Amino acid sequence: MIPKNNTSNGRMTILLTFILAFLLTIIPIHDIFKLYRPDWIALCLIYWCIFLPNRIGVLSAWVIGLLTDEVMGTLLGLHALAYSVIAYIAIQLHYRTQHYPAWQQAITVLTLLLLHRLLMHWILGITGYPPNTLTYMMPAVISALIWPLLAVVLTAVRRRYSIR
């Protein structure tokens, strides 16, 4: 039996949630549905930054962003910069946000994800690859709609393994 207050157990659980988020991000789906794919990695990052800012911070967000850029084949540093910015803001708001009901958290998450998408849109525009703005923002809206369910699941995981 694994001890519940083991710090390595907490690190492994957080790592496994990010691995699952990466897997959900790279699962091949039809092009029509790619528009509606939630940003699983950003959702996971925001959750851990809000509820465990002492474990997951801006440096973690930068590393996760670089891994995302590598896995997705995007411009190196694109996700890293955007994830670092939203991680910083999520950490600054964590005292307030973690006590909100899920629907209010979803509004905060939507704002963070829209900022994430706008930063990426801006960088892609500078490099000469501007995507369609309206369709580019759709994953942020879908992710915010999924947030209440994801928050419940990750909170259950956090409590089950006593991650502090």
Question: What would you note in describing this structure?
Answer:
- With 164 residues, the chain is mostly helical.
- The chain has one domain.
- 75% of the residues lie in helices and 0% in strands.
- The chain is built from eight helices and no strands.
- It has helices at 7-26, 31-34, 40-51, 58-72, 78-92, 94-97, 102-126, 133-160.
- Helix 5 packs antiparallel against helix 7 (102-126).
- The two termini are 19 Å apart.
- The model has no long low-confidence stretch (mean pLDDT 91).
Element layout with pairings:
Elements: H1 7-26, H2 31-34, H3 40-51, H4 58-72, H5 78-92, H6 94-97, H7 102-126, H8 133-160
Helix pairs in contact: 1-3, 3-5, 3-8, 4-5, 5-7, 7-8
Question: Can you give keywords for this protein?
Answer:
single chain; 164 residues; mainly alpha; 8 helices; 0% strand
Give the overall form. Answer: globular
Structural class: mainly alpha
Number of helices: 8
User: What is the rounded distance between the termini?
Assistant: 19 Å
- Main beta sheet: strand number and arrangement? none
Write the H/E string, N to C: HHHHHHHH
Number of individual domains? 1
- Backbone CA Rg: 16 Å
| Count of extended strands | 0
**Approximate strand percentage:** under 5%
Low-pLDDT regions: none
Tell me briefly what this model is.
With 164 residues, the protein is mainly α. It has helices at 7-26, 31-34, 40-51, 58-72, 78-92, 94-97, 102-126, 133-160. Helix 3 packs parallel to helix 5 (78-92) and helix 4 runs antiparallel to helix 5 (78-92).
